[in-house]
Design brief:
- By secondary structure, the protein is an all-beta fold.
- It has one domain.
- It is about 0% helix and about 30% strand.
- The protein contains no helices and 10 strands.
- The strands form 4 sheets. A 3-stranded mixed beta sheet has the order 1-9-10, with no helix packed on it. A 3-stranded mixed beta sheet has the order 5-4-6, with no helix packed on it. It has a two-stranded antiparallel ribbon with strand order 2-3.
- It binds iron/sulfur cluster.
- Iron/sulfur cluster binds next to strand 6.
Length: about 100
Amino acid sequence: MAEISCTVTNCYYNKRNGCTSPVIKVDGKKASESRNTSCNTFVEQKPGIMSSTAEPQNNSSVECEATKCVYNKNATCKASDILVNGKNAQRHEETCCSTFRAH
Ligand code: SF4
């Protein structure tokens, strides 16, 4: 469970740089640095798609494939808070978990 700070303000789930999703999925099976990770839960806001009306969570579940990260235990993130970056991303590959730290 982690509190997620997120600069991807054009994501459906982003509100006030927090994340309203109760669970996110981070990719990066082979990642050895943060830029090779990405938030797979990203959904680009487009005209006609409203943003989530929920409030930012402070204990989202983070399922994470980046097993080379020190915070990864059994494909779950054990950090208490993480930072997701990727301003103006259009695809989830353009986001990343900046909290990633290699073993
Ligand atoms: S801090 Fe590490 S384990 Fe947690 S989401 Fe980021 S890359 Fe995955």
